[in-house]
Amino acid sequence: MTIDPTTVNPTDTLLPMPRQIERLAGTATLPRELRAKVATDAHREATIRALEQLPVRVVPVPSGQPAFVDVRVMPGVTPPEGYLLTVRADGITIAACDPAGVRHAVQTLRQLLPDAAFRQRPPDDTLWTLPCCDVSDHPRFAWRGALLDVARHFMPKHEVLRHIELLAMHKINRLQLHLTDEQGWRIESTRHPRLTEIGAWRHESQVSHHRDAPLFDGTPHGGIYSKADLREIHDYAADRGILLVPEIELPGHCGALIAAYPELGAPPVRDPQVLSTWGLHDTLVAPTEANFALLASILDEICDVLPGTYIHVGGDESRLTGWEQDPRVRDYAASRGLTSAAAMFGDFMQRIQAILTARGRTMITWDDSFATQQQISGTGAGDDALIMAWRGADVARRAAAAGRHVILAPVQPTYFDYAQSDSPTEPLAIGGPVTLADVAGWEPVPPDWRESERACVLGVQCQVWTEYIASPRRVDFMLYPRLCAFADVAWNGQATARTPRVAHHLGRLDAAGVEYRPIAGPHPWQQGGTGRLRHRVPAPMQAVLALHAQAADDGRTPDAATYQNFGAPA
Ligand code: TNX
Questions:
Q1: Rounded to whole angstroms, how far apart are CA atoms 310 and 33?
Q2: In angstroms, what is the span from residue 543 Cα to ligand 1's centroid?
Q3: Contacts for 231 with CB less than 8 Å, ≥ 6 apart
Q4: Which among 313, 318, 465 is the best mutation to test ligand 1's pocket, defined by most ligand atoms within 8 Å of the CB?
Q5: Distance between CA 544 and CA 119 in Å, rounded?
Q6: What HEC string does 292-342 produce?
Q7: Does 305 share its domain with 269?
Q8: Residues 380-404: pLDDT tens digits?
Q9: What's the pTM value of the predicted model, to 2 decimals?
Q10: 480 in a structural domain
Q11: Last residue of a domain, which of 137, 157, 189?
């Protein structure tokens, strides 16, 4: 299906596309003062807030009085997050089983209006007309996530809030904030102030591609979210139906943490620094009783600030050789009868899980951690931590076959830090390409999976890692429009019409002020030119990943030399 912009029918351009939509004769026009009635007291405030996304003034009215919009929240009326929407010339009804469903219905309504409905200050002279229709809708996946890496490059709070607004527009319902890594620790701590005094900034950043001679910008970079900021981000997201999932990396990707508290590092590091280079590094957090006590205290403080169900604790890309070189770790392992690196890693993750379970939280890890568990126990079953599978469908299927809940986040095609085409007009990127067509054509669960394996798939997630993405403008460029196609996959829009709908949807993004990459290629000012962001041929990521898959399944992480052979980050 192609969408002809001259005869376009808004019901053909929705993104994500609802399950069922029937266009009826006639149109409705929103009154400038939108009288809204909410049947359920419990959800009145949330509903009014959701309706305020529409470009008119919302006036709540008590039951018994005439209203243009009538909202009912009734358990069981749809599957979770679903809604029934009717638009008639004389009024609109929304029925949903939960407040999330109401919000999604309002997002659909907004897309049925002219694109100007997406302006922060909608124009006064627009007639807010929409087609009469019946919509019946609910999502395919319960987990429709987006990861934003604020550790490699800090993004100011107001930009994170704006990012949340855009995710909600696409019915994304999870924001994983990658808050800690080698290159930065972003969370205020009262108990452990060195975490931000030391860990929240680095002297400079690597601006050279991993194939070039190292080049640094000589400019300090950093940033902190105070506890109040984080709580605000959490609440702001929750108001929009998005659950904030903090990611605290352990035991690898911990350079900033170890710079702040060097006693955590294994092998011992004399002058640990927040790293200004990208790629894999050798130092891990050492498993010792004292270190677990410190980690418990750090995680506890984060749990005090963020009430969400899930905490992601990384577990990826940990080169275990670091532990073997540390006598403290050898003593710890001996005291617990741990005889292999894999057993030590499994034990480490279990202890972190115990800390989170005591706080009523569910742990999430990258799939490397599952692969290690599988080596130890043979199955990897019997653990309720969620597995986020980044290395592809094979490891995801193994986790699902073991009865583990899985979130599909494969590099191809959900790594939106990768270049969007192989054209030299694309600016520097860490890998790729991942094209819009790759995303639009993605079927997350391969057809040969068994029913029992499919049932373990919680959902899907896309990621923006920010090694080479230093500003929110660049985040927009990398995310849009690929995120639009991703959102449609996550919700279950019709694959055949996906790309034309994305093209049409760009008008809404324009109105919202999103600096997306045009489908035909980057604007001149979005290209790398001849400067630091000049285009480079990306590393052969499939080969790098195959290497990763093999190494993680063998219980090791590829060493720097192997990486170098691929020209990939070391
Ligand atoms: C792999 S996915 C990583 C990140 C990098 C990303 C770059 C994963 C669990 N680790 O640390 O930022 O690749 O594309």
A1: 40
A2: 15
A3: 305, 306
A4: 465
A5: 42
A6: HHHHHHHHHHHHHHCCCCEEEEECCCCCCHHHHCCHHHHHHHHHCCCCCHH
A7: yes
A8: 888 999 999 999 999 999 999 999 9
A9: 0.95
A10: yes
A11: 137
